[in-house]
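Q: Can I see a sequence and its folded structure?
A: Here is a first one.
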Amino acid sequence: MEVVAVRRGAVRSVVVAGLLVLGVSGLSGTEAGAAARRGPEADLAYHGRVSLSQGRLRVWVVPQNEGPAALPNATLRVRLSADLADRQELAQGCARAGQREVVCETGALPLHGRGRHIGLLLELKEPVPEVVVRIDTWWNGGASDRDLSNNQHAVLALDTGDSYAF
């Protein structure tokens, strides 16, 4: 499966266009944009662990939705403080989004449920003694999320092979 990187503004434009087609055409552009932003509300959370050993970074993430609405899909982002090797074999539903960045779809996130487990084995361009791994939401399925504290993580992984949980 191929994941296509789409900027947030493009997604917002598609949502606003969809609202206009669905009969919200009486709203101004600003009002339609505000209505699109209100959408459903969901509380995304990510739990998992990272480990670094000899230039190989393992990232395991379980996306979770505490509601109040289910989401058909969302996209999480993994950003690193070190460059990725040129060639990567990524898990299904994941794509490289830059020299230090990978994005992965979560799959359906039911109310008070979990999305698919995401496992990545990322090769770094060069072995490093440590790497900072930042995990956050790149696209939230069109929902608003009032609590970002449980879906924005920064983890320092030392090159020891030890697992660091978040």
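Q: Show me another, different protein.
A: A second, unrelated one:
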Amino acid sequence: MDAEWREDRLPGRLAEPFPLTEPLPGRIGAPAEALTRGTLVLSEQGCGIFTRLVLNGPRAGQIWQIDPDWGGFVPVSHDFRTWYTDWLESP
């Protein structure tokens, strides 16, 4: 998680546009760092899977999950409040 936090805090990174306009399912061929610009890491799910808040562009406010090895980079919630409430209520 520390590496993700450091990467997010590089100058200008959070202000950059989010590069995806559509979900990217499946194995990701590009480096994950190139796809996570304009997002902020919220949590680690384990095994290199991270949940991220999109900060810029048409998808701003959505929560996406990146799993570079298997699941791709896909939306998991339309907004932070819904994602956070679901997380609080999960067992």
